[in-house]
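User: Please work through this fold.
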Amino acid sequence: MSRIGRLPIDIPAGVTVSVEGQDVAVKGPKGELSLSVARPIEVKVEEGQVLVTRPDDERESRSLHGLTRTLISNNIIGVTQGYSKGLEVVGTGYRVAQKGTAVEFALGFSHPVLIEAPAGITLTVEGNNKLTVSGIDKQAVGEAAANIRKIRKPEPYKGKGVRYAGEVVRRKAGKAGK
């Protein structure tokens, strides 16, 4: 049995989980998320807990069991606490500035790069080199942060670029001078 899949998920106060066939809807104080569960996996709500079960020990059922439980748990955490990912802009002349709901980056290109926040995501700027991506959907927050980092990845010689908060960039020695 899956160690993660068999664990029940406690439903906190203020959160409602409804299951209709293979669709699981989670509603909480921060918003509403839904998930479509793959076919062999079954989800039940009993006594303030969500239980995820599988009908057999087939390879596909085993692989989906823990995944489904984790996705439902992430949705419950998302509607209660939310998720956030920090980004840092490192480099001489590299800056980030808030422009309404959008964010403007100066990253050494000939033009400033303007990024609009996707639906359900908020971008907040602290100082001129820190950015926080936050929202209730863990996957959407991670994807938005990855797309922003993709604009100018940290390079290995000076470490300049957009990196995750706390990310360690492996540095190379560069050319040996005379």
